[in-house]
Design goal:
Layout (H helix, E strand, L loop, with lengths): L13 E9 L5 E10 L5 E6 L3 H9 L1 E6 L3 H8 L14 E3 L6 E3 L4 E12 L4 E6 L1
């Protein structure tokens, strides 16, 4: 099993990524999000309680962390209205290999995760810990 440190991740550093999950109707959802490494096998996501990503993660217990240097992907996942119909193109996504989640087809790298724990942080955010 590859450890996060082997990939260059350091504990307590924030890494800007795009998290992908499946909506209840199995359409892909993507959102830019910072992640932190908790230990060699776990990653923390601090997610707004009102977000679709948190709802999806609670439902499917899986997400893909996508690493990309493509600023257009970050922009279009952050500002959904920037897309012609308010949705991201289906061809941007493929099924993850081990997680019940989509992944970005053109990501530089991906980390497929499963949910371990959800901890409320405050009225606005929740921390999701994933393996």
């Amino acid at each position: 099993m590859v450890k996060l440190a082997d990939l260059g991740f350091c504990k307590d550093e924030i890494y800007e990524t795009i998290i992908t999950t499946f909506n209840q109707d199995q359409t892909p959802n993507a959102a830019p999000m910072g992640i932190t490494v908790q230990n060699q096998r776990q990653i923390n996501l601090k997610i707004f309680n009102t977000s679709q990503t948190l709802k999806n993660l609670k439902n499917t217990k899986a997400a893909t962390i996508n690493l990309t240097s493509n600023i257009d992907i970050f922009y279009k996942t952050a500002i959904k209205e920037a897309n012609s119909n308010g949705k991201l193109p289906k061809e941007w996504f493929v099924q993850a290999e081990t997680a019940d989640a989509p992944k970005l087809a053109n990501a530089d790298a991906t980390i497929e995760t499963t949910l371990v724990n959800i901890t409320p942080l405050d009225p606005q955010k929740t921390q999701a810990t994933c393996n």
